[in-house]
Every structure is written in structure tokens, then in C-alpha cells.
Design the sequence.
């Protein structure tokens, strides 16, 4: 297959791990961070994969920065990205606790998650920073990871990452706003439950991260019930010997908005001594019970579900210590190992829109795992240096795969066409 270099300008072009294609499949969205950990991009942009034309989607002002942009699955003029604080100073500047999600449309940014960092806290608002915002398949709901400023101020030890969602049913306005507080267009709740000191050998987790929506429309439970909304995420458990072991967890989410307003053991909005808590109707459930190191954290990847919701893909080492691609049902059970070679899977991955394959980097090539043939298909030539690990993303119609290579010191975007004749 022939890969095509889409971008050429002498600066970085950073794709997010999924949802980087415009709804019509004509453009790819990216930011201009010079490195993954340097959040200094002033703009988010899109490039037409056919013409190479670059369009600025949004430019931050007042000292803020933007990045990690994703595209709405059905609206060509709707995107989400992380937005750093305006007028940053020594007390409030960009970090994991001081960032927000914004919807970009028509050149304007609308803040998703309200922020309330002074008591009494507000139901539907959060108290810190949100990160890597992903639309559900219908574009209705948004998931993201979350770090709490209030608890971080108490102690660095209490800095626990969680998974949260934004619901479009109700905007949130704060009373008596303090500096650095703001309203939000969506109602936000934390859906994972973390414990500061998890009991060794238990299902308690210290952190929750790298979440993914289950199915285009949810999944079929063992009882024959269709669960419309669900999220899988990695939860960091503690083994009996004290090792931190990442495992896969799932939360089934209610259809009814009212259920998101009903508190469980702890207030949804949090307290001065407790993180924001999941609503009473949301209980996390553990799916994997690893005997070894658990889900792989390197390469960094996000859990991704098949379109029909029947499989959750993830990376984990096999008995020989090689990082392989696996799947597990959202109903639990034994995981299934897909790849079996001697090379580590080298990247994050995405599913073909029909679910017939998964694409990722393996042996310095972009490859597809074909579920019908149960084998790997290489779609780029093997090179001395692997493509970048953060993003290997199918287009909406499954006809192209986007990825990045470092060329003369800059990350450039490439695509490779995947024809039906080649696939079959």
C-alpha cells in the first residue's frame, strides 16, 4: 500500500488517539504541541487529506493554550479540545488540575465542565481539570479523565485521577463565582470510584484512566438486556504483595438524567475532604483478574470497544512478556489473545467502523488485525524507525488510516488507503 504524507510544514502535528477525522472523512484535526508533555500549542487546526489545505479551527488568547482535539462523529463543524487557563500566573497555570474542555464551533469555544473550587460546591460542576474528551458514537455525551484541584491542595498524595462524563441535559451556573471558577454548558459527574489506600487484593482502585465508550449503542448483557450506555476504563488495583496492577473495569450508565442527580454514599459534588462521587445508580465492576503485571501501560493506549459492543480491546503482556493485543467481553469472562508474534504491539489502536479489524503499529509497520483471517495484514512498509505510537486511526468509512511519522525532527501526518480488494 502507498502511504501519503499529508502535512509538510516545519512544526509538529499531533493527533489524538481517536476521533481525529472530520465526520465526512475529508479532514484530520491536530494540535501543534512540540511534545506530548509540553502543552504550549496556541492553535488547533485541520488539514484536508486530499488537498493538504490547512485551516485554523481555533486560536487561544490571553496566555492560554489548547490541544488534544477530537472531532464530533456527525457534525463537520464541531470539535472538543483541552483549554488551558487564561492569564496564567504562579498560582494557577496549566497542569492536570487547571484545564477544561471546550466545544469548538464556528470559531468560538464553549466551556463544557463548570469549575467550582470554593465550598459550598455545585452539583453538576467539577473542581479541577479535564482531559482527552471523547464523544459517544452519537455525539450526545462526552467522556474524559479528571483530576481534582481541591484534594490536590490538601496533599499531593490525594491526587487521584478519575473518569467523568458530561451530559448535555442541563447547563451549570455557579453562584458567587470566585476567581478561576466558571460555568459549564454540560452537567458533569464522576463515574469511577477511587480509594486513597486500596486494600491489597481487593477491587478497590487508586486511579481510573484511559476510558472508552462501549459500542456504538452499548452492549448486550448476559441476561439479554441491552445496556445503552457504558464506559470501560483502566483501574489501578493493589496486589497482595503491594504491586500496583492495572485492570479493566466497567460502569453501566443510566438512561434517565434524574439518576445522575441522586447521590450515593458521598455527595456528587464532593466535599472539602472527599472527591466528587459517582451517583448512587453507578457502580463499577471489575472485568480482568490478571495473575501478572495486568494491563500494559506502555505503550500508552485507551480501551476501545468493537462497534457492536461485544469486545473491549486492550494491551497486555503474554506469558513471555511480549505486549499483545487482547479482547474481553463487557460481561466479563476470560480475555482472548489476538496477536501471538514475538514483537510488542507498539501503539494505541482503533477499530474498523464495521468491527472487522483493528489497526496499530507492529514491527515498525502500520498493520491490521483481521478478525476473519485471524492474522496481521501490513499496510505500510517496515521502516528503521516506527511511526509515532499515540495515534493510528481509521477514517469514518474505513477506507484510510491516519498516523504520524517524525520527519526531520517534526511530527508529520500520514495516511494510507486500505481498499476492499487488499483487505479481502
Sequence:
Amino acid at each position: 500500500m502507498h502511504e501519503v504524507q499529508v502535512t509538510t510544514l516545519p512544526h509538529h502535528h499531533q493527533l489524538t488517539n481517536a476521533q481525529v477525522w472530520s465526520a465526512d472523512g475529508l479532514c484530520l484535526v491536530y494540535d501543534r504541541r512540540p511534545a506530548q508533555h509540553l502543552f504550549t500549542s496556541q492553535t488547533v487546526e485541520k488539514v484536508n487529506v486530499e488537498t493538504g489545505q490547512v485551516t485554523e479551527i481555533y486560536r487561544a488568547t490571553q496566555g492560554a493554550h489548547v490541544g488534544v482535539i477530537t472531532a464530533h462523529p456527525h457534525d463537520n463543524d464541531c470539535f472538543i479540545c483541552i483549554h488551558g487557563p487564561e492569564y496564567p500566573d504562579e498560582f494557577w497555570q496549566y497542569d492536570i488540575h487547571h484545564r477544561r474542555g471546550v466545544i469548538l464551533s464556528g470559531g468560538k469555544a464553549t466551556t463544557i465542565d463548570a469549575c467550582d473550587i470554593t465550598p459550598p460546591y455545585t452539583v453538576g460542576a467539577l473542581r479541577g481539570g479535564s482531559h482527552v474528551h471523547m464523544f459517544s458514537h452519537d455525539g450526545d455525551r462526552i467522556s474524559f479523565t479528571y483530576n481534582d484541584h481541591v484534594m490536590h491542595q490538601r496533599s499531593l498524595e490525594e491526587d487521584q485521577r478519575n473518569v467523568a462524563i458530561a451530559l448535555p441535559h442541563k447547563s451549570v451556573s455557579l453562584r458567587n463565582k470566585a476567581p478561576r471558577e466558571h460555568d459549564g454548558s454540560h452537567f458533569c459527574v464522576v463515574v469511577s470510584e477511587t480509594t486513597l489506600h486500596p486494600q491489597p487484593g481487593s477491587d478497590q482502585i487508586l486511579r481510573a484512566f484511559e476510558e472508552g465508550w462501549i459500542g456504538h449503542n452499548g452492549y448486550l448483557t448476559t441476561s439479554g438486556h441491552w445496556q445503552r450506555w457504558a464506559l470501560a476504563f483502566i483501574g489501578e488495583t493493589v496486589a497482595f504483595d503491594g504491586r500496583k496492577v492495572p485492570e479493566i473495569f466497567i460502569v453501566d450508565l443510566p438512561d434517565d438524567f434524574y439518576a445522575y442527580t441522586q447521590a450515593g454514599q458521598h455527595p456528587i459534588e464532593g466535599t472539602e475532604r472527599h472527591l466528587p462521587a459517582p451517583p448512587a445508580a453507578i457502580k463499577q465492576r471489575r472485568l480482568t483478574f490478571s495473575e501478572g503485571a495486568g494491563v500494559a501501560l506502555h505503550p500508552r493506549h485507551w480501551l476501545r470497544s468493537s462497534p457492536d459492543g461485544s469486545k473491549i480491546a486492550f494491551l497486555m503482556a503474554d506469558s513471555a512478556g511480549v505486549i499483545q493485543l487482547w479482547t474481553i467481553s463487557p460481561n466479563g469472562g476470560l480475555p482472548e489473545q489476538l496477536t501471538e508474534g514475538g514483537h510488542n504491539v507498539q501503539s494505541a489502536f482503533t477499530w474498523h467502523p464495521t468491527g472487522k479489524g483493528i489497526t496499530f503499529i507492529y514491527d515498525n509497520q502500520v498493520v491490521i488485525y483481521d478478525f476473519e483471517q485471524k492474522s496481521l495484514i501490513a499496510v505500510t512498509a517496515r521502516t528503521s524507525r516506527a511511526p509515532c505510537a499515540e495515534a493510528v486511526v481509521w477514517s469514518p468509512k474505513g477506507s484510510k488510516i491516519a498516523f504520524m511519522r517524525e520527519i526531520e525532527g517534526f511530527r508529520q501526518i500520514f495516511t494510507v488507503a486500505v481498499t476492499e480488494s487488499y483487505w479481502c
